[in-house]
Amino acid sequence: MSSNTHAISSVETSAIRKATWRLAPFLGLMFFINFLDRTAISFAGPHGLTKDLGLTATQFGFAAGIFFIGYILLEIPSNLALHKFGGRRWLARIMVTWGIVSLLFTWVSGVTELYVLRFLLGIAEAGFFPGAILYLSTWVPSRHRANILALFYIAQPMTTVIGAPLASSLIQAHGFFGLEGWRIMFFGVSIPAVLVGIVTWFYLPDSPRDAKWLSAEEKAWLTGELAREDSTKREPHNGSIGAALSSGRVWMLALIYFGMIYGLYALAFFLPTIVSGFEAKFATKFTVFQAGLVIAVPYLPAAIALYLWSRDATKRGVRAWHIGIPALVGAVSIPLALYMPSPETTVACITVTACAIFAALPNFWSLPGRFLSGAAAAAGIALINTIGNVAGFAAPYVTGAVKDYTGLYQAPMIIVGAFMLLSAVLAFLVGREIRKSGEASQAYAALKP
Hints:
The chain has helices spanning 2-44, 49-53, 57-85, 87-103, 111-125, 128-137, 145-153, 155-171, 181-203, 216-232, 241-245, 248-276, 278-282, 288-296, 299-316, 320-337, 343-364, 368-371, 374-406, 410-437, 442-446. By secondary structure, the chain is mainly α. The two termini are 37 Å apart.
């Protein structure tokens, strides 16, 4: 009996280790390129794009946000297509398409073209993030999911740690090929999407059965364990698309995600502009590259916080406070940042906000796949991400509009704090309701304050 247990444990360990390190870093690279292309406009804005195209803060915010309208329209259909055609084909198609659209920003000449291209970029990228979440969720059992998702999600803060200096370096190549620096930056960050998209077609297996790097025993263990887990999920209609889209549980998670994404994108799209305003506010002047380094500062601690917080969640099981406490911290720190008396204290507060947002997000995404399966998982995860991406449109647009109206960023950052506070409150309410209901679903039995 003991030797059999040891054999099973050894197969599990090796199968999870191989799946994690073969898939998470590569999906993380894809996510890195995805988020860099999506937010490249934030680096271009204060370094020539806004001036050259004559944009107001409201127009810039709308251009940043209209991406999410295109994204939202096709997100659920795209995720269902991934479920039908397989992750390898569909994720490769998404990457190549968005790389081509992103490349066209190199030659944008007016505000209307900017709006159109941002909208098309959203359509091209639709389904990538929930598709990647769904894909990884079909490879490992729920008890290992927080860890693999954390390794994937760490690419997002690292996008700014590496991407901000990279984008700044490309912007400083002003005049190369007769192009403005911000145009060179768009060109430079777009090409990798096309190249990695082509590699994806050949690199990613669709399922454990197709993975040549797994032994027969590892394939059998993963396939059997995932099938057993699906059969024990307690949601009455975990395989029904309609039930997933009408589930109160799914919609509650979607609202929690909305508040966190509102904070994420308000920070992502306007932090470079806020940093560029340090000269007027604090008489502190940075070069383009120095500003890129300052923008990167909050995200390295955020990556570390993401990893450590997710390790704790993996050890204990995801609980309400793994989501609620970071959201509460972010709700306080982000509006407080703009009342700080120096650049250093402002960046310190923004760092706390970034740590809070990224600590919560991967743990949040470990939940839906534990009570939804099959096409319902594809639809439910896409719906949650769709509602979050409504915040992706609203955050930059509202932030820009309120800044234009008030002349300051304090009021829009208070709005950001309010939405993150909503996420914190809802996370603890969900935990309390699940504790009262006493349901045996693995995800929600663990989610208790």
